[in-house]
Amino acid sequence: MAPGDELDALPPWWRGLGRALRLCRRAGPRLMWVAGLTTLAAALPDVLFAVGVAALGRAVAGHRGSELAAAAGLLAVLAAAGWLLGTVASRLGERLSERAAVRIEAHLAGLEASVPTVEHHERPEILARMARLRDWAGGLSELPARLFDLGGGLLRLGVTLALLMSVRPVFGLLGLFAVPMALLPLWRSAVGFAAEERVEHLQRRARRLFDLGTDAGTGKEIRVSGAQERLGALWAEAWHRRNRVLARVGWCNIGWSLVAFGLFGAAFAACLVVEASTGSTGSGPARAGGVLLVLAAGGRLSGYLARTVDQFNGFRTIWVDQSRRLVWLEGWAAAGRRRWDAPVPDALTAGIVFEDVSFRYPGTDRPVLEGVSLRLPAGAVVAVVGENGAGKSTLVKLLCRLYEPSGGRILVDGVPLDRMPADGWRSRLTGAFQDFFPFEFTAARSVGLGDLPRIDDRDAVAAAVVRAGADSVLAGLPDGPETRLGTAWEGGVELSHGQWQRIALARGFMRGAPLLRILDEPTSALDAETEHVLFARYAAEARREGAAGGVTVLVSHRFSTVRAADLIVVLDGAQVVEQGSHRELMAAGGRYAELYGVQAAAYR
Ligand SMILES: Nc1ncnc2c1ncn2[C@@H]1O[C@H](COP(=O)(O)OP(=O)(O)OP(=O)(O)O)[C@@H](O)[C@H]1O
C-alpha cells in the first residue's frame, strides 16, 4: 500500500514479532543472550523456595537439628541467589531496553520523515496509528526483556506444578482451576483495547484543546476572543467522556476477576484440607513436609500465574499491537518510494507541465484543483494569482511533492515527477512560504538552514541575506548574525512577524541554481513597495540563473508585483481560467484585467 491509498489492515502478528526482535537484537546481540539466560536462571531460586520450606517443616516436626540447619542454609542460599540473579537480570534487561529504545526511536523518526508526502499528517486514521506507535515506542524496546520475563514465568509455573504433583498427581489439577484467571486478563485487555481505540479521538481532542489553551502561539488570539473558558470546558468534557467509557470497562474487569480468583481459592483450600487430613506422603514429619510443600507451592501458584499472565499480556500488547504497527509503517513508507526509477535532471530544458491535474485533500470530496493543464517553461518567472482559496498554495504544494495529484500528472522535462525520488527533487527546490516557520536558532543558522550542507558557511549566508533584503534585520540585532532568535532562549531576541519573514526569505535564497524556486506570498507581511522591489530582484536573479533552466513560481495578491512575470496564471473555481503575459491578459479584458483594475483603482 502506498501513501495516498486506503489504509490497509495491520500485517499478521508473526511478522511483527520477528521484525521487532531483530531490531532490538541489533542494539546488542550479546547483551540480549546474556540478559535472556540470566532472567531464566533468576526464576529458579524463587520456585525452589517451596522445597526448602518443606525440608524445614520436616526437620522441625522430626526434631532433627542437622536437617534443620541444612534446610535453613538452603533457604538462605536460595534467597540470596534469587535476589542477586533477579537484580542482575533486571539491570541487564533495562540496559538492553535503553539501547534498543534509542535504535527504535531513531528508526521510527527516520521512517516518518521518509514518507514522501505530508498527507499522513492530515489523515486521522493514519495519525492515530502513528501516534500510538510513537507514544509506545519505549514499549517496543522492552519486547525482548518481556519475552525473557515470560519465559522465566513459564519456567516457574512448570516447576511449581511438578512440585505439587510430586505430593499427589491430582494436585496438578490446581493448574486447571487457575486457567480462568489466566484467560481473563487476555479477554479483558482485548475489551480494554477496543474501548481505548473507540475513545482515542476524544483523547486527541483533549490534548489538542490543551495545547490550544496553553501554547504561546495561540495565547494572544485566545485571550482576545475570550475563548479560554470555552476551551477549558470542551477539554474537560472530552476527558470525562473518555474516562467514563474506560471506567466502565475497569469495573467489569474487577467483577470478573473476583469470580476467577474465588474459583481458584476454593480449589487450593480443598487441596490443603485433603493433604492435612489424609497425608499422602506419610505421617508425622513427612506429612508436615507435604502440607508445607502444597502450601508454599500452591500459595505461590496463583501469584506466579497472575504474574505470568500479566507478563504475557504486556508482551502481547507490544507484540500484537505495536510490532505490527511498526511493520505496517515500514511497508507504508517503503511503498511510496518503490516507483522512483527516474533521476532528477541537473537542469531543465523544456520545463514543468501540468497535464489535466486534479486534486482533493485527503478525507475531503471537494476538488481543489480540477483539470489543470499548464506549461511552466524552463527559465520562466511564473506568477499564480486568484482569490483566497482558489488553490494557489495547493498548486505549489503539488510542485513541492508534499501531496500527489489525485488525477493527471506533472511532468518535468517530459518525465513524470512521481517517478523521481521525492527527496532528490526537493533538494533542487528552494522556497519561501507565507506559513514559514520561525526557527529559533542564531540568525545565521536560521538562514543557513535553507541549504543544510552550507548551514555554517558564513559567506553563503551573508549573500542570501543581502539577496533577500534581510541585511537591515541582521544589522539591528545585538550580536548581528550570531544573535540567538526567540525569547524562549536565554539572551534570545524576538523578531516582528515581518522580520521573521525576511529571515525566511533569506533562507529561501541559500540554494543556488535551483530547478524550482517557490515564492508563496513570502512577502505578505511587507508593504507593497518593498515586495515590488524584492520581486524585481528575484526575477532578475532567476533570469541570471537561467543556465539551469530553473522555474520561479510566485504566488501573490499584489498585481503590481505580478505584472513583471513572464507568465501569469489565473486560478478560479479550482481551474485555470486564464494564462498569458500581463499585456496579453489586459488585452483579453477577462478576469485578470478585472482584478487588476479593481486593485489599481484602490491604489489610486
Ligand atoms: N490541508 C487541507 N485540508 C483540506 N482542505 C484544505 C487544506 N488546505 C487547503 N484546503 C482547502 O483548499 C482550498 C484551496 O486552498 P489554498 O491554500 O490552495 O488556496 P489559496 O489560493 O492559496 O488561498 P490564499 O490566497 O488564501 O492563500 C481552500 O478551499 C482550502 O479550504
From TrEMBL:
A GO cellular component entry from the record: plasma membrane
Transmembrane segments: 31-56, 68-89, 254-274
Domain of life: Bacteria
Protein's cellular compartments: Cell membrane
Keywords, alphabetical: ATP-binding, Membrane, Nucleotide-binding, Transmembrane, Transmembrane helix
Organism: Mangrovactinospora gilvigrisea
Name this protein carries in UniProt: ABC transporter ATP-binding protein
Domain ABC transmembrane type-1, first and last residues per copy: 35-317
SMART domains per the UniProt record, alphabetical: AAA
